[in-house]
Amino acid sequence: GFAFQHSLNAGDEAMRLYEVTTAVGHYEISRTLLNKNNSVADAESCLRLYTQLGLAYELEFHHRKAVTVYEEMQVQASIHESQKMELAALVVLCKILPLPYDSQNLEKAVALAMQAHSLAQTLEDMKAQAQIELSLARTHKFGDKQIESTLQHLRAAEGWARKAGVRDELGVVLLDLGVALLFFGQLAQARS
Fold it and tell me: Which DSSP state fits 100?
């Protein structure tokens, strides 16, 4: 435990200071310790490690590494029997997979979003439901350009974000919704 926790805290401090490369190094030490002995950390610490390490890789544009980290988080969720961690892993995966990077996999994003949607309903997690709907909108946006489906998912994401009271998520959704409405030729709605 101590070495794991120390490296995890050092990674968090590095992220707070925007030293992303340094944070990755600290998080990777914690990850190595965890992989050697799953009992060094509880579910909450594992969740923190994997979400922060995945985010750090995303910030460095190492999307394949981020996907690998998030998939490993799914395994840890099973080991720790944590539905919260499982949902977090599914949500971050269905958020990253539609994006136009080397890690893009639209079919997998949709499949994971369906799993995540069911679990989010069970856990009554409205923020996760908003994120899932946004990811589904993006599978259409970055996929086959089915604008109607994109708009439906964005409107659903907006509703969930408002219910959950998550302003940052709502801002992202409204930005995507405005762009989609402009694309669809609904300038008046996009302005509001």
Answer: S
d(C-alpha 156, C-alpha 174), whole Å: 11
Angle value at C-alpha 120, between 101 and 75, nearest 5 degrees: 60
Between CA 173 and CA 133 the distance in angstroms is 9
**Tens-level pLDDT at each residue, the chain (192 residues):** 899 999 999 999 999 999 999 999 999 999 999 999 888 899 999 999 999 999 999 999 999 999 999 999 999 999 999 999 999 999 999 999 999 999 999 999 999 999 999 999 999 999 999 999 999 998 887 555 577 888 899 999 999 999 999 999 999 999 999 888 887 776 555 555
Whether the model clears a pTM of 0.85, i.e. scores above it, the answer is yes
Distance of CA 133 to the CA centre of its chain: 12
Helices (H), 2-62: 2-16, 20-36, 43-59
